[in-house]
Amino acid sequence: MSDEYRAVNPNQLMPTLIIDGHTLTQSSAILEYLEEARPQTPLLPKNPADRAKVRAICAIIGCDIQPVQNLRVLNRVGEEGKNEWGHHWVTIGFTALEKELTKTAGKYCFGDQITMADIYLAPQVYNATRFGVDVSKFPTIARIDSNLAGVDAFCRGHWSRQPDCPEELRAKD
Predict the structure, then answer these.
(1) Which stretches make up the GST N-terminal domain (predicted)?
(2) CATH code of the domain covering residue 150
(3) One domain, residues 58 and 142
(4) If you placed Cys at 160, which of 38, 102, 105, 171 could pair as Cys (CB 3.0 to 4.6 Å)?
(5) How many CA atoms lie within 13 A of 63 on its CB side?
(6) With 0-12 CB in 10 A as exposed, 13-18 as middle and 19+ as buried, what is 48?
(7) 115 shares a domain with 65
């Protein structure tokens, strides 16, 4: 991690978004900001109960699955155990997530409109694959991910297409 990034985000974790003269960190804070500052592109449904359901899906991913596989945790687990660790926790999390998504999913996590939940899901499916999780065992998750892969904004937003992606990992278009 560069000294420049450490100065921008002292927590030294991803993500960081610099927008409208603000430096924002943490996925939920960034997405809530975008929801409020860019209402023409809503990331949450209008109905409060539906909004809560989308936030719950986000929390399953962002609070229950992802934190136990972030770099700080994986470094502590050690090189030899990190794949088993990641596989274990993603599988447990995806088992719960799959059950929730069968109640809410349409084309995407919550019906047929892209929401915050989809933004949380896409990178988590990548992590699942990285840890050798057979995503086909989670058909709703796999179907949603396949649908998201066809959305231009998700393709352009992929980590391998970002300007700070190391050249050796950068997507070759």
Answers:
(1) 1-42
(2) 1.20.1050.10
(3) yes
(4) 171
(5) 7
(6) exposed
(7) yes
Please list the rounded mean pLDDT of every run of 10 residues in the chain (173 residues): 57 74 87 93 96 96 86 83 91 97 98 96 92 96 96 81 72 73
- Assigned token pair, 27: 């996925």
168 burial (CB, 10 Å; 0-12 / 13-18 / 19+) is exposed
Cβ atoms of 89 and 69 within 8 Å: the answer is yes
Give pLDDT, residue 154.
84
* Single-letter amino acid, residue 49: A
In this structure, are 65 and 82 located in the same domain? yes
Task: Please report, for the domain that includes residue 33, its CATH number.
Answer: 3.40.30.10
Question: What is the DSSP secondary structure assignment for residue 134, as one 8-state letter?
Answer: -
User: Alpha helices, DSSP H only, in the chain?
Assistant: 3-8, 27-37, 48-59, 71-77, 82-104, 116-130, 139-149, 152-157
pLDDT for residue 81 = 86
**pLDDT value at residue 10:** 60
Number of domains observed in the structure of the chain? 2
Task: Quote helix, strand, coil % in the chain, to nearest 5.
Answer: 65, 5, 30
